[in-house]
Amino acid sequence: MYQNLALLAAFLLTYSIFAGRFESRLLNGPLMFMLAGLILGPAFLGILQPRIDKDGLRILAELTLAIVLFSDAANANLKTLKAYEGLPLRLLLLGLPLTMLSGWLVGMWLFPQVPSLELAILATLLAPTDAALGKAVVSNPKVPASVREGLNVESGLNDGICVPVLLMFLALLIEEQTRSPLSMAGLLFIEELGIGAVTGVVLTLIAWRLQRYSGQHQWQTPVWSQLMLPGLAVLCFATAQAIGGSGFIAAFVGGLFASYLFTQQKHHLLKASEEFASLLSVVTWVVFGALVVPRAWSSLTVEVWLYALLSLTVIRVLPVLISLAGSRFDLETRLFIGWFGPRGLASIVFAVMILEYPLEASHTLVAVAVCTVFLSVLLHGLTANPWVARLARRDH
């Protein structure tokens, strides 16, 4: 255990010191940590031996995503949804559903033996984009502000939007497997969604009122106030899960409500939450590279690789081009927006989630998810800085 911890800490320390040098080239954090896990892990050198079972991996991934969902939702500026010719709104209301639909249709073509409902689950778990993987784009001032804000808002909200869709398909799957009435699937979906949403709203409202009361009596300290929102994110997630709701919905709704309530203080209060999410993400990426990628390697068929490539290109880019039709953005900018829809943490967690359900093609679905995320981390990491530099030269 201590050897694993020492290796992880040493790599994290080294990368944090030289991050500017690495990321100015063709690299990014998730790519480096995933490759570190893969190379140092059991598949190659074997000096990193994470002793974590399926349940431990699920808890790690779910907790990380819950905090990321909360932070992204709380950081989202909903006023920008209609800005820049409605770019974020176009991507979320048109691009996202079309991405799910095209992913399902391509799945029907490549995997005719897989039930159509399971292909819909696959299309949904690969639809959300990852803001962390796109950081080289959304934080680079060389990228036009409209593109940066559009991609940032999209990636901050689309994973939360995909959660209820995924829950609906999983409820339908349970109904199909148990041959229970369709109304039971609807009730299960509404129950998870409703309990999660109410939990997020109630707990966030209570936390806000307590924070105001404490502030009026000057009982707060700068150090401890930083831990309030990370604690609230975990509380929303765990409480909803414990009482039969969706913890992800609770975290996402809680974050959106916190963005509304903590308007003036939210960026200050969210610093610790974002840092906590980043640390958990590092561990998740290392474990993903060390354990998940090698396990899925034997299931990576030609069809799996082809679907992964199409998921990063046609399945994502074509819906973006359709959703941006009639906007002022030129073709290269639209292609840029479509290409930089990297898949990451949400897809990993969703893939881990579906392992608990009786899917006929679970190995295929997980293999496709692993392959898509692996290629995304690699290809988006390698192309971000060169394409940004090209856009900067073109615009000047």
Q: Mind summarizing the main beta sheet?
A: none
Shape verdict? globular
Our count of helices gives 18
What is the element string, with H for helices and E for strands? HHHHHHHHHHHHHHHHHH
Instruction: Return the average pLDDT rounded to an integer.
Output: 87
* Terminal residue distance: 52 Å
Work out the number of β strands: 0
Can you name the CATH architecture?
A: Up-down Bundle
Q: Return residue spans where pLDDT drops below 50 for at least 5 consecutive residues.
A: none
Estimate what percentage of residues fall within beta strands: under 5%
Helicity, as a percent range: over 70%
Mind telling me the C-alpha Rg?
A: 21 Å
The CATH topology turns out to be: Na+/H+ antiporter like fold
Q: What structural class do the secondary elements suggest?
A: mainly alpha
Number of domains: 1
Which CATH C-level class is it? Mainly Alpha
Can you tell me about this structure?
The protein is an all-alpha fold. The chain has helices at residues 2-23, 29-40, 54-75, 83-110, 116-125, 135-138, 145-178, 182-216, 222-225, 228-242, 247-261, 266-269, 271-296, 302-312, 314-323, 331-339, 345-354, 362-395. The protein is globular. The termini are far apart.
